[in-house]
Amino acid sequence: MTQISGIQSRCLTVTLQLILAAALHQSFATVAPPVTAPPHKEPSRPERGNYNVSSSNGTVCLLASMGLQLNITFNSASLNKTVQEVVNLQPNLTKSSGSCGPDIASLRLTTDGEKTNLTLFFSLNTTSSKYHLSEVSLSAILPDVKEPFSANNGSLDYLRGTLGYSYMCREEQTLDVAQGLSINTFQLQVQPFGLAGEQFGAAEECQLDEDDMLIPIIVGAALAGLVLIVLLAYLIGRKRSHAGYQTI
């Protein structure tokens, strides 16, 4: 009887070991290691390029210095869904051309072997002597689309400046052009009218730059005010402590 009990005990132990091994095997088999998604790669900052347009007599009539980044949204043919492509214009691979008129000037940037053509149109109000970016047109042959991408908007009002002055914006700014297209500008300075020679006129800075300069001034003024309050509190406290020791 004791021998039978020993055999039953050993069978029970073996059975428990098998059940435990099976459970552990099932646990390791079903719990997969966590999948880490590849980190999102931020687009690099575009290089600043210098572009110009000359009139028919050879004099420079438009100057531009800026870094440009195109944000293009299109339907991917291979993925069968909408995707966004970020394209930096490379100055060493970009050709500039255009035209200058009394109240309309254009800058055409062609890159990637004529695959990408970006044209900026500037309008001048001769009454107020103010100019602005009034139209943007883009055509681009992308590697994953059935037809060339194109976008145009002729009712824009960006980069406002005064005749004879250049428009400057050091901060990054986004120009919403049309559905599927926006442009990020970096370290931008442009003058489409009223050039005197081949140099920019005095710069009129954008609101973003003015706000960026205003923040340190406000912080400095607040710190100066705080120091003044502390100093006054110290002087008042010191005066009261001396008054308490006066002889009656």
Automatic annotation (TrEMBL):
Query: Which Pfam family is one of those matched by this entry?
Result: Lamp2_2nd
Membrane topology listed for this record: Single-pass type I membrane protein
Domain of life, per the record? Answer: Eukaryota
Give the matching InterPro entries: Lamp2-like_luminal, Lamp2-like_TM, LAMP_CS, Lysosome-assoc_membr_glycop
Cellular location of this protein? Answer: Cell membrane; Cytolytic granule membrane; Late endosome membrane; Lysosome membrane
Chief location? membrane
Keywords (alphabetical) are: Cell membrane, Disulfide bond, Endosome, Glycoprotein, Lysosome, Membrane, Signal, Transmembrane, Transmembrane helix
Q: Transmembrane ranges?
A: 213-236
Q: Which GO terms describe its biological process?
A: establishment of protein localization to organelle
What start and end residues bound the annotated signal peptide?
Answer: 1-29
Cysteines paired by S-S bonds: C169-C206
The name of this protein is Lysosome-associated membrane glycoprotein 1
Species name for this entry?
Answer: Scomber scombrus
Recite the lineage of the species: Eukaryota, Metazoa, Chordata, Craniata, Vertebrata
